[in-house]
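tool_call predict_complex ligand=thymidine-5'-diphosphate
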Amino acid sequence: MYQIINFKVHGEHDGRLIALEEMSADVPFEIKRIYYIYDVRDGLRRGFHAHKKLKQLIICVRGSCKILLDDTKNRDVIELNSPSIGVYIYQPLWREMYDFTNDCVLLVLASEHYNTEDYLFDYKEYVRYLGAADV
Ligand code: TYD
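tool_result ok
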């Protein structure tokens, strides 16, 4: 349901650069939307939803945070603390983000425009959706 992707880092001594292209091994979908989360208040937890169809690549480009991914059987916690790591979520997966550092900038590349119809906002609804949908 998700995959950790390690990006190639260009340049080591005079500054680093990471380049991402859509429809590649790094970003296996067409990018229709980009958003970023920053200035998260201390102690705040965000997310608390899953998506039905949306694919996302989540990258912490500055600072760090944690992401909890729950497929109803396993709960994985990933520490995002490097801009060279992406979490690619390609199937409905419950997520919560927390432990944001003050400088954290969380960048998200998404396969669809913003659409609240695609959201599963309630954990029970998510469990029901997984039971009913052929995902
Ligand atoms: P929200 O989904 O609550 O963020 P998170 O999942 O990190 O808790 O989004 C916060 C606000 O931003 C909400 O009013 C909806 C709006 N929003 C958009 O307008 N477009 C988007 O692409 C996203 C992700 C959110």
